[in-house]
Amino acid sequence: MNWTDIPSYLCLAIYALATVASLAGVLGRSPRVKKTAGLLCVAGFALHTLWLLISIADGSFSAVSRGFYLLPLSWILALAGLLVARRQHMDIALHFVAPWAFFLGACALGFSGTPGSLPLVGPLFILHLAAIFVGVGVMAVAAGAGALFLWQESAIKHKTPLDGFRKDLPALGALDKVNAMATLVGFPCYTLGVLCGLLWARISWGRFMSGDFKEWISLIILALYALLFHQRQALGWRGRKPAILALVIFAASLFSMFVVNTVLSTQHGF
């Protein structure tokens, strides 16, 4: 291990501590422990940023690999969660960010030795990846809010007493607002990412699509994203349906990343 690896290990260690502190703070309903967890998340994100910058500077991102794919994605997810926590005064977002940032960051570190399968060439390809990362990252936050929404709604519907730490969870309207914000940001970004990918494929390979499963699952995710965006904006969807659809979109994104990319035969096998 050389000195450039230190930020990555420190980042994961702090995210792990933040996860434990978040769980303890929520279950124990301790403001002090919750605040400590929030500070640990911020410190972890700072080291996450340094880790990302070092990876860019030392040429780790000269080609697309599994480690390359997961590191910026985990960074965007953490950034989105921190912004929600600050702008919406929703500390629960930090308790979602820490474990997911740790998990994806650990996967990125584990895959860091995997050779790249595609050279990272041209602004169109870089924009394709960056926009996809943003689209998936913000939808991860929306999925977390959606899961809490469904849990809270079920408790209210069945008249389950909201005792203990459940008293501290955000209101249904606040959770739905996170879904709405994520959709407004994520759908245009994901659409841009898919379009840039199609154009890059046409320029590089002479065709828009090769027909592999990764492309089809990406189009399915885009269609689901479009449905969520349209139903919210045109028909005024609120509450349960957008929450469920956000979870479906994020689940499909995880399937695309961890099953399609690693198990199936595809040109996107990184």
Gist?
The chain is an all-alpha fold and 270 residues long.
What does this structure look like?
The chain contains eight helices and two strands; from the N terminus they run H-H-E-H-H-E-H-H-H-H. It is mainly α and 270 residues long. The chain has a domain at 121-260: Four Helix Bundle (Hemerythrin (Met), subunit A) (Up-down Bundle), CATH 1.20.120. The chain is globular and about 60 Å long. The two termini are 24 Å apart. The model has no long low-confidence stretch (mean pLDDT 82).
| First-last Cα distance | 24 Å
Under CATH, the topology of the domain at 121-260 is which?
Answer: Four Helix Bundle (Hemerythrin (Met), subunit A)
Computed CA radius of gyration, to the nearest angstrom: 19 Å
The outline comes out as: globular
Kindly state the number of beta strands.
2
Q: Quote the average pLDDT.
A: 82
Order of helices and strands: HHEHHEHHHH
Key structural traits:
270 residues, mainly alpha, two-stranded antiparallel sheet, Four Helix Bundle (Hemerythrin (Met), subunit A)
Set out the fold topology:
Layout: H1 6-28, H2 31-57, E1 63-64, H3 66-87, H4 92-110, E2 118-119, H5 123-157, H6 172-205, H7 213-234, H8 240-260
Helix pairs in contact: 1-2, 1-4, 2-3, 2-4, 3-4, 3-5, 5-6, 5-8, 6-7, 7-8
